[in-house]
Write a structure and sequence with these properties.
single chain, 279 residues, transmembrane helix, transmembrane, transport
Length: 279
């Protein structure tokens, strides 16, 4: 690499455009600025299109109309009334996925036989559409929060198991051998060696599962019924209230983003505590 290429690479790295060291790239204090700028531009284009009358309000309402509808839903208590059941199902499904997915990923990593048995079934489970699984859950379990939570767990299960397996299999085996030579048992290795080293990958899977769990809750309510945002979305769609549809989609997106941000904060705190560094 010439000196000019090196200077160009350093400039791109400082600007955050491209870095040759992905494992050591750290988000800066202004990491949210690019996303906020792009979001502002998209909203501005959206407003310009609707203000110019290029698209009828039936198909694309104005941003101000959507915000006004969301404000009305907050003031009337409608937003929380429909949001609470969806949150309850998503959180319950997330808990089920964590309780089952992480231990299963650990066991599949250490047992070749178990890994050979469960990994194909885990992959196949993601090929079946949620709308096909939902009616079966209704037949087997019935209606209510539990079947929707199980649907959330199914959709959030895959990234958790996958990242757990990948994180554990990518560990430095020399470190594991050293721990074995020191006479550690499986629990000590998990708590002091394997867990801290694989924490970034495992927690990244949990972060992805949180967002998918919210999606599973809404899909479950659309198919199985309920009292959450999926039901509110169905009511808005049936009444051809496009602004209300956009408002519900906005609530779903904002809730998923809040979940993602919260888990990301917990992930950084956990990695800092386990590895002595921030992610």
């Amino acid at each position: 690499m010439t000196s000019q290429e090196r200077r160009s690479a350093l400039t791109l790295s400082h600007l955050g455009v491209w870095s040759a060291f992905p494992g050591r790239t750290r988000p800066g204090r202004l990491r949210l600025v690019p996303a906020l700028v792009v979001a502002a531009v998209l909203v501005l284009v959206w407003w310009a299109v609707t203000a110019a009358g290029l698209i009828a309000p039936l198909y694309l309402p104005a941003p101000g109309e959507v915000v006004a509808r969301m404000a009305f839903q907050v003031q009337s208590g409608l937003a929380w009334r429909y949001l609470a059941p969806t949150l309850a199902a998503a959180l319950l499904g997330m808990g089920i996925a964590v309780a089952v997915g992480l231990p299963l990923g650990y066991l599949a990593t250490h047992s070749r036989l178990l890994g050979a048995v469960v990994e194909p079934f885990i992959a196949v489970s993601q090929t079946v559409p949620l709308v096909a699984i939902a009616p079966l859950l209704v037949l087997w379990i019935g209606y209510g929060t539990v079947p929707i939570a199980i649907l959330c767990a199914i959709v959030a299960f895959f990234p958790m198991v996958t990242t757990t397996v990948v994180g554990l299999r990518s560990l430095d085996m020399r470190t594991i051998e050293t721990a074995l030579l020191d006479g550690t048992n499986w629990w000590q290795r998990l708590v002091h060696v394997e867990g801290p080293m694989a924490a970034p990958a495992v927690l990244a899977g949990v972060r992805g599962g949180v967002v998918l769990s919210m999606t599973g809750a809404v899909v479950g309510e659309l198919v199985m019924g309920g009292a959450g945002l999926g039901t509110l979305l169905t009511l808005a769609r049936d009444s051809a209230d496009t602004a209300a549809v956009f408002a519900v989609v906005a609530w779903i997106s904002l809730t998923a983003l809040a979940f993602h941000a919260l888990v990301q904060l917990l992930e950084r705190a956990a990695v800092h505590r386990l590895q002595g560094e921030s992610s």
